[in-house]
Design brief:
Layout (H helix, E strand, L loop, with lengths): L6 H7 L4 H4 L7 E4 L3 E5 L3 E6 L5 E7 L4 E4 L9 E6 L4 E3 L6 E7 L2 E11 L4 E9 L3 E9 L7 E11 L7 E5 L5 E5 L7 E5 L6 E3 L8 E5 L5 E5 L3 H5 L3 E6 L5 E8 L8 E6 L7 H19 L7 H14 L12 H8 L17 H15 L3 H8 L3 H11 L2
């Protein structure tokens, strides 16, 4: 069956009982200060800085269940960035971000927008969708590719992990085979994961049914990076931990080239207090569904992939044989409502509306229907940096 990208058809076809798919876990709490946004889940604490584009993640450890940072003492907090062929580069560490917090039925969402290159109009948006036992991170670089060319894009967060607490690794390769071992005492440089730059402890891809790499320690400390959309956005991407000669323990959640600009990348930072991967394995189907929901609530305009994800989720979680608007995420459902009988339709030329309203609606629709921001800018006849400024000005 072919599904065309039309609101009326979406209204007739899509419905997923999100109530039936809601988590059994409690919603996390949030505290906002002048310096940071702090979100506390069942087994973690996420600290998102309001003064720089960085974050820290603390997880439960030890018999008392105290919260400890997974970041290396004296090391770097999680950040995003890219290098340039001409030298130098840009990252979120030195950028003061715009931070927004939104509570919803599934948890708490923290959005962090960093303008990396104001002159070129290049920015980064990280969205942290915080559930009880995990943080789903959506990451995207927005704007034109730097003129010098980006040699390296860290599409997900770069984590400098503490291997005195997380001293063992575990993952499963594309054949289902398991890989595990100790990190302490390893000769540097040492690489472990999927498609690393070097080393023997490597897989071509992670197991599609268990698309994660886990680090854990003797005191019960655990952190797993799960890679949803394994075949859509992560196939061929590097995902590995590197023990650097200088003492850094950098976990690269995705390393790409200039093709990473304008694309969404999603990872899930997961933790629990079990001594093995059994609970994570049982949670994988639900985590992947939660990741799809997080992308649907992402702050960028909708696209065909989001529509497909909504339909797939609807089919999986539908309570009855029919599909309707009530089963959709509100963002998609609102689109469908515009086309129902008796509802006001979208703004059109010839209606008693201002030119500003017409321009806003036209840009909004082009953004929704274009696969990338560069495509939207080309259709609108403007350069990507101008489109970026208009989106910000119009709140799109």
């Amino acid at each position: 069956m072919i599904i065309r990208h039309r609101p009326a058809l979406c209204a007739a076809l899509i419905s997923a009982t999100l109530a039936a798919a809601s988590s059994v876990f409690a919603a996390p709490s949030v505290q906002v200060t002048d310096a940071a946004v702090v979100v506390r889940g069942g087994g973690y604490e996420l600290r998102v800085s309001k003064t720089a584009g960085v974050f820290d993640l603390l997880v439960r450890s030890g018999s008392q269940g105290e919260l400890v940072s997974v970041m290396r003492p004296g090391g770097e907090h999680g950040w995003y960035g890219y290098d340039l062929n001409a030298g130098g580069g840009r990252n979120t560490q030195g950028t003061r971000p715009e931070v927004a917090v939104r509570n919803h039925a599934r948890g708490v969402t923290v959005s962090v927008h960093c303008l990396l290159d104001p002159q070129a109009g290049i920015s980064h948006l990280a969205q942290y969708d915080c559930l009880d036992d995990c943080v789903i991170v959506c990451s995207r670089y927005d704007g034109p590719i730097p003129q010098a060319g980006a040699a390296l894009v860290r599409t997900g967060p770069k984590l400098d992990v503490d291997i005195t607490r997380l001293d063992h690794y575990l993952f499963h390769d594309e054949t289902g085979g398991g890989h595990s071992g100790e990190l302490t005492g390893r000769t540097r440089d040492f690489y472990v994961g999927a498609r690393p730059w070097d080393g023997t402890e490597a897989a071509k891809e992670f197991d599609a049914k268990r698309p994660y790499q886990m680090l854990y320690g003797p005191t019960g400390t655990k952190l797993a990076v799960v890679y949803p959309f394994a075949d859509e956005i992560w196939r061929g991407q590097s995902r590995f931990l590197q023990l650097y000669r200088d003492g850094g323990n950098y976990w690269y959640t995705g390393v790409g080239a200039t093709s990473a600009f304008g694309r969404d990348f999603v990872v899930c930072l997961y933790t629990d207090d079990t001594p093995d991967e059994s609970r994570l394995d049982s949670r994988i189907p639900a985590l992947l569904a939660e990741a799809r929901e997080a992308v649907l609530q992402y702050a960028w305009p909708g696209n065909l992939r989001e529509l497909r994800n909504a339909i797939e989720r609807a089919v999986i979680f539908a309570a009855g044989p029919s599909l309707g608007l009530g089963d959709l995420p509100s963002r998609v459902a609102a689109t469908g409502q515009d086309s129902l009988p008796g509802k006001a339709g979208p703004i059109e030329a010839g209606q008693p509306v201002s030119l500003d309203q017409l321009e806003t609606e036209h840009i909004r629709l082009i953004l929704r229907r274009s696969p990338t921001l560069d495509d939207a800018a080309r259709i609108l006849g403007i350069d990507p940096s101008t489109l970026y400024r208009k989106r910000k000005q119009l709140g799109l």
